């Protein structure tokens, strides 16, 4: 689901945006702007990220398969999934504020909305909440905590196109059975306590066949050092992922840390994922334990540019033996301004299963924030 890097807020129809969707988006923008003018104690803003890249894309897959075929194409949202959003706050007095967030994914290469044909319109975020001295409470659709931890401690952030951590967790061969965001969820975030923060999230199943999913996270950041841990128990899923069968669940734990030495920033992550209760044709590959680790670095080479490198490895403990998937990504990111950057990336994607061949991706892109 939701895709972004740690600095960018957080992971419908598959055809061009319909007239009704355009009218809805325009109406929201106009009404939010009017609300911001009418009340001085309120603030509303429109924002987003536009990301497009061009290159040769090839992934690990069976020899002569669609995955393993090298294709030259234009792609949207490879470094950060493109989206448009609206957010606002209202000062209720006494330190209490009301807040909302509405965010919609876009595919700039075709002009379509959503990440895929199965996305709802506000798939990135759709929530309201309250904040104050007690922290923050939010209800609606939002990122889950595993995804927030996954993007926070690797140099490519929430890149579904290039980040080894994200691809090995949420990609085609990743163990995650849900999305990077949860609908129908409630989350509470503590205030920042001298660098320490924590949060809890609950997603009711809302039916007799679906159970409640839960998540927690905690972290500490002080100067150049940061560490965080996320854990969740997922018992249901929704589009674009297939729902979990009754009685199935996945447990996820991900630990990450980073340290900025100035000349180089180092990243590290280790995670474990375990599935149980899955039935059907994929039970043999779903009811397994998966281990993941990632090592990365970011090296500033000028005031505006930095070299990025990340290596990730995923090992699944199958009954037929361990299956290992490795991704190495190297990149250079150069900022032309505070809002616009260009990047070049090479990615080596390798799967050691019999009959599988590695894939090499080379891409060049531009990303603009507004």
TrEMBL record:
Keywords: Cell outer membrane, Ion transport, Membrane, Porin, Signal, Transmembrane, Transmembrane beta strand, Transport. The keyword Signal applies. It is a multi-pass membrane protein. It is found in: Cell outer membrane. One of its GO terms (molecular function) is porin activity. Homotrimer. This is Porin.
